[in-house]
UniProtKB/TrEMBL annotation:
Protein name (Swiss-Prot/TrEMBL): Arylsulfotransferase ASST
Matches recorded under SUPFAM superfamilies: Quinoprotein alcohol dehydrogenase-like
InterPro entries: Arylsulfate_ST (IPR053143), Arylsulfotransferase_bact (IPR010262), Quinoprotein_ADH-like_sf (IPR011047)
Pfam families linked to this entry: Arylsulfotrans
An example molecular function term from Gene Ontology annotations: aryl sulfotransferase activity
Signal peptide: none
Length: 494
């Protein structure tokens, strides 16, 4: 046994000698470390590192006095590095060290920085102590809100009510935003003056500009003039001027698995019915474009619609469909919401055929208590249910506004046999009924994130509707999006 032990000892010594030789023969030094504030935001910091030789590095950082630390992802080998630290807290002291990623890591001494105080227009009592505020109900993620006023911004708020990330535009408000499959944010922007709420419903027949035909009043319109894609560092990847292309994007925009942009746009056809005055009929369509803004295809319901048999057309000719959602089924076909019809439609993305309609008068038989009214945000959850936000407006169940109630409702669909069963229904408090806008999404922990737009409330409820956490906005959020923790894995390890 002794010879074997001796051989093992020699091998260990040889490895140690080789490691030491390799280490000293390839010695690398940190020549300089600087801290900056990208985009002049109090919630971001960037560590600039200069080495004497090209090596991969990462940064370990932690809030001063806190045991929990974070590590950024390892950068590619280079002499100069710019490593972002994000979702920091404002007016807070942090410690960090730079680490050269080698077999034997080389660590800098501890250094520190302090983030600036929060921007004044972001200071708000987002969480009220006398309202439900169990931060664990939200899980480890954050809530993304969009402000369509000026200055327009997107902000991510954590369970404590602290803004941990935001981005703003110098001139435009942010109508709405969505997370893309490649971990970026796609946002629809427009000046606040583009809102169409109180203008006369009937457009001038002399005008051919689509913006004059937007329905207002009870149904309303919030459109967009610019599309922008940004990464989570705030870097602008693409900007598309929709106005210059003559496109009026309406209510929703998403990125598909091919990284193309799919959005709801205004669309029209000429009323050529016999014994009717010639007029322009308006509605919505689904438009697909690439990231440069080149139009790839458009689906219009007018192409499949029998206007001769449409008894509602005369009263709704300036906003016949009013789609407010675009999402994708598991087979990549479209799901959209027609609130005027109180229906969710599935559309073949290749042929444009309407495959089925779910809701009042649709292809699935639903009981009265399962019907939904003026709904928003239908989509397929991770577990396969179709989840939507039932605004509840026009519902015959409640004759007065005081008794009306909005809710999240999810269906298990058998698309082959056209049967639907309710998986769960989670009503929100009647005081937070919202006739327009709103959304409902399922969190990883099984809770629901629901937006009561008209009351400025974002709620986390269980699947029975019990409110566990409430965010209080000072504006009308069109919808709130959940940003899970793994969204940041591109930038940090934990």
């Amino acid at each position: 046994m002794k010879p074997i032990k001796a051989i093992i000892a020699l091998i260990v010594v040889a490895i140690a000698v080789f490691a030491a030789y390799y280490y000293y023969a390839h010695q690398v030094d940190i020549e300089n470390i600087e801290v900056s504030s990208p985009n002049n935001l109090p919630l971001n910091a960037a560590i600039q590192v200069k080495l004497n030789k090209a090596e991969a590095v990462y940064v370990e950082y932690w809030k001063e006095g806190d045991k929990q630390s974070y590590k950024t992802t390892v950068s590619n080998a280079a002499v100069q590095h710019n490593i972002p630290l994000m979702t920091l807290e404002p007016n807070t002291s942090y410690k960090f060290r730079v680490i050269i990623d080698r077999i034997i890591p080389i660590k800098s001494s501890e250094q520190s920085f302090k983030t600036r105080a929060q921007s004044p227009w972001m200071v708000h009592d987002w969480i009220k102590a006398d309202h439900p505020h169990d931060e664990k109900a939200l899980g480890n993620g954050m809530v993304l809100l969009c402000y369509r006023g000026f200055p327009g911004y997107m902000a991510m708020v954590d369970g404590k009510g602290t803004i941990r990330w935001y981005w703003q535009d110098e001139k435009l408000g942010v109508r709405l935003a969505s997370l893309t499959p490649r971990g970026t944010i796609l946002a629809l922007l427009a000046p606040a003056s583009k809102d169409e709420f109180n203008k006369p419903n009937q457009p001038s027949k002399k005008s051919t500009n689509a913006s004059y035909y937007l329905r207002s009043g009870r149904i309303g319109f919030v459109g967009g003039t610019v599309l922008v894609e940004i990464d989570l560092t705030g870097k602008e990847i693409a900007r598309i001027d929709l106005d210059k292309k003559g496109i009026i994007m309406h209510h929703d925009v998403q990125m598909d698995q091919n990284n193309n942009i799919v959005g709801i746009v205004r669309d029209f056809r000429i009323d050529d019915r016999p014994n009717h005055p010639k007029d322009t009929l308006w509605g919505d369509a689904i438009l697909t474009m690439d990231i440069k803004g080149n139009i790839l295809k458009k689906w219009s319901p007018w192409e499949k619609w029998d206007i001769q048999q449409d008894k509602k057309l005369d009263s709704l000719k300036h906003d016949r469909f009013h789609f407010n959602t675009i999402s994708f089924d598991r087979d990549n076909n479209y799901l959209t919401s027609s609130p005027i019809e109180n229906q969710v439609w599935k559309i073949d993305a290749k042929t444009g055929d309407i495959l089925w309609k779910l809701g009042k008068g649709g292809d699935y038989k639903l009981k009265d208590q399962e019907l939904f009214y003026f709904q928003h945000a239908p989509h397929i959850t991770k577990t396969g249910e179709l989840l939507l936000f039932d605004n509840g407006d026009f519902s015959p169940r409640d004759s007065t506004t005081a008794n009306k109630q909005s809710r999240a409702i999810a269906f298990r669909l058998d698309q082959k046999n056209k049967t639907a069963t309710v998986a769960y229904a989670a009503p929100i408090p009647k005081k937070q009924f919202t006739a327009r806008m709103g959304s409902a999404y399922e969190l990883d922990n099984g809770n629901l994130l629901q937006t009561s737009s008209k009351t400025g409330s974002v709620l986390v409820t269980d699947k029975m509707g019990k409110v566990l956490w409430e965010l209080n906005a000072y504006f009308i959020p069109y919808r709130a999006i959940y940003v899970p923790e793994e969204t940041w894995h591109k930038y940090r390890q934990n």
